């Protein structure tokens, strides 16, 4: 791996790898369920494999089809173990149904993490089904009520990204869930963005203390009180405009609001980008300008390209699962794989588990209002 | 008025104005409560006055201060009636307290609409206080449970904008409220965006029918059933990415989600715009490119400038109230005034009242599941 989207992360990872003597990481990849089919998934892992010699893969899906796709890529020779699984979870399938089916590529991919064969799982499939299946196969960490999906969001902060959670694991969250999101989000920011004391904000419709829903007012007190044990600084209520801002590093919200905000932000960035392209095609002069500014515009595009931050991380489980966009292309799949690799190499899952366990122990000892 | 942000609206307005022989419109303006103080408000009305000879104003706030500011603007001579009111509603004041105070510029501005002196009210003040005061002074339309704030959102649609509501009147909305939002939003889109049969979408975390909160599933049926009487086409569930898209014209959601989405979209657009500016300053070549592309970039900036669509309209009251951004500059204030003028000139408030009344009557006659 020669580059990193996350400043400060890469040296740490390299250092750890060096100490382990170039330890290999095996990722378990659900080849099915993405909107573009398994060929895109295989193209994505090939791209990652060419950049990172420490990566190996277990690939889950219809054996013959996957075998043909993998054989076409020389870089994947001897680095992919194919598991022949016939079933595919459809995008419109109910999570409660999907999680009961034993023959799916999704379940097989998760089980490889459960059985210790792989360090993390990556899937482009149905989010609800992936979370439901992860919960019954991997199980939740002790002390966690609702696992969450955390995403990275381009921001004005020096680290270039903010963490937001939950962005869609569950449409509900009470004050105790929000407290757990603050703890988990801070841990992710500390390990993933290399911030010693991440600043946490609670998303609301106004920054005044009397505003917002009842559970937000209750959560405000819980999160403020647990800042010491969570290793974060609590900045209070924030608004939607602060999500890409530099006021906080971690945005805590319920999965309904977080999902709407994530998709609204992506849609708006894409709209502005498309309007920009139109503007540069408007006149002959602007077309020349676009040529002159090509490098700068490409830098801008890279900075706001949602594919670069593709990958929602499931937090609160006994194992790492990365959810890639259903519509991800090979670049997007490769970004999700990179994220899964970085989290595996840094031992994030074990660190988060230890942090949650110590919070639970502390709550039992000193009677603070943290959930058990 | 010589230009219009809303295609198709201006001719209709002109036509109506022509038939009325250049009827004057009087707007009631709360001079206080904006982040930038009364000088910015007066600068905004002066800008509007210079563009539109049919506009007159009643200005509410401390008499001496306002008198000095108005005297400096020749264009405002004989067009502004100042009401000396000492009290100002603070941004952090609780709505329940603010609405009880009789001496505020906000209440005085609303009362001028109530008393028929002005056709619409514009305020940059505390949103919650403005809504609470509007509700007790103007009262709700019969058949409306929760009034809503509707905003215009730049979109890929031919009309250039979509309508979203509620963006912050109330943090709660049950299925009947959401139905009323659909009816009111469709009426706004029909009158404000000149769409015969607006397409309405219900904001959710997924487009599959089983996803989302219970009230959203219930609202889906209610809104679908009322499409005939509401004069809209119901497109079902939509996601955050569809807000600036061309799939629907009207986005229905609760005021918590809508407010977060609005501010997230604004924040993201601003982030991309700032990154773009940085990109053009990166190299000497890109600086030359920026000069060449200046006209195109200005066109882009105008297209995504949130000040151009400044103004949330309160729907469901016996009178028109436009809420401008608290941080609006003179351009933003002027945009809110323009919106208030257009709604007044088109008789939108009366049309919406008639639509709601006929929906109530129909529900009583044929026993559909609409609220009484």
Automatic annotation (TrEMBL), chains A, B:
One of the GO biological process terms: phospholipid biosynthetic process
Reaction equations catalysed: a fatty acyl-[ACP] + phosphate = an acyl phosphate + holo-[ACP]
Any one cellular-component term (Gene Ontology): cytoplasm
Subcellular location: Cytoplasm
Pfam families hit by this protein: FA_synthesis
Main location group: cytoplasm
Superkingdom field: Bacteria
Pathway assignment: Lipid metabolism; phospholipid metabolism
Claim: Disulfide bond is one of the keywords in the record: no
EC number: 2.3.1.274
Keyword annotations: Acyltransferase, Cytoplasm, Lipid biosynthesis, Lipid metabolism, Phospholipid biosynthesis, Phospholipid metabolism, Transferase
Gene3D superfamilies hit by this protein: Isopropylmalate Dehydrogenase
GO molecular function list: phosphate:acyl-[acyl carrier protein] acyltransferase activity
Xref: InterPro entries: FA_synthesis (IPR003664), Phospholipid_synth_PlsX-like (IPR012281)
Role summary: Catalyzes the reversible formation of acyl-phosphate (acyl-PO(4)) from acyl-[acyl-carrier-protein] (acyl-ACP). This enzyme utilizes acyl-ACP as fatty acyl donor, but not acyl-CoA.
Assembly and interaction partners: Homodimer. Probably interacts with PlsY.
Record-stated family: Belongs to the PlsX family.
Protein name: Phosphate acyltransferase
Organism expressing this protein natively: Celeribacter baekdonensis B30
Gene name, Swiss-Prot/TrEMBL: plsX
């Amino acid at each position: 791996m020669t580059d990193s989207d996350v400043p400060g992360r890469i040296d740490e990872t390299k250092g750890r790898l060096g100490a382990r003597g170039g330890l290999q990481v095996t990722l378990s990849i659900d080849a099915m369920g993405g909107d573009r089919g398994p060929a895109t998934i295989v193209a994505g892992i090939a791209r990652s494999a060419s950049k990172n010699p420490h990566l190996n893969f277990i690939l889950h899906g219809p054996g013959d089809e996957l075998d043909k796709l993998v054989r076409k890529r020389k870089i994947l020779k001897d680095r992919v173990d194919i598991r022949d699984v016939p079933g595919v979870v459809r995008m419109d399938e109910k999570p409660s149904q999907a999680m009961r089916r034993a023959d799916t590529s999704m379940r097989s991919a998760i089980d490889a993490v459960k059985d210790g064969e792989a360090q993390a799982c990556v899937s482009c499939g149905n989010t609800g089904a992936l979370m439901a299946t992860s919960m019954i196969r991997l199980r939740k960490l002790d002390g966690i009520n609702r696992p969450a999906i955390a995403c990275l969001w381009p921001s004005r902060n020096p680290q270039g990204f903010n963490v937001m959670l939950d962005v869609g694991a569950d449409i509900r969250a009470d004050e105790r869930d929000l407290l757990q999101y603050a703890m988990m989000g801070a841990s992710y920011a500390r390990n993933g963005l290399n911030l010693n004391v991440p600043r946490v904000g609670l998303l609301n419709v106004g920054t005044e203390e009397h505003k917002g829903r009842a559970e937000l007012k209750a959560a405000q007190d819980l999160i403020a009180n647990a800042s010491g044990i969570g290793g974060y600084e609590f900045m209070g209520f924030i608004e939607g405009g602060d999500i890409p801002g530099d006021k906080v590093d971690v945005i805590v919200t319920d999965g309904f609001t977080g999902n709407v905000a994530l998709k609204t932000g992506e849609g708006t960035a894409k709209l502005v980008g498309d309007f920009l392209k139109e503007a540069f095609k408007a006149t002959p002069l602007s077309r020349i300008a676009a040529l002159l500014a090509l490098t700068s515009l490409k830098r801008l595009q890279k900075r706001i390209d949602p594919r670069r931050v593709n990958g929602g991380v499931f937090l609160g489980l006994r194992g790492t699962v990365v959810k890639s966009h259903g519509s991800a292309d090979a670049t997007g799949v490769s970004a999700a794989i990179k994220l899964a690799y970085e989290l595996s190499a840094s031992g994030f899952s074990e660190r988060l588990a230890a942090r949650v366990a110590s919070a639970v122990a502390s709550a039992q000892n000193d009677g603070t209002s943290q959930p058990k």
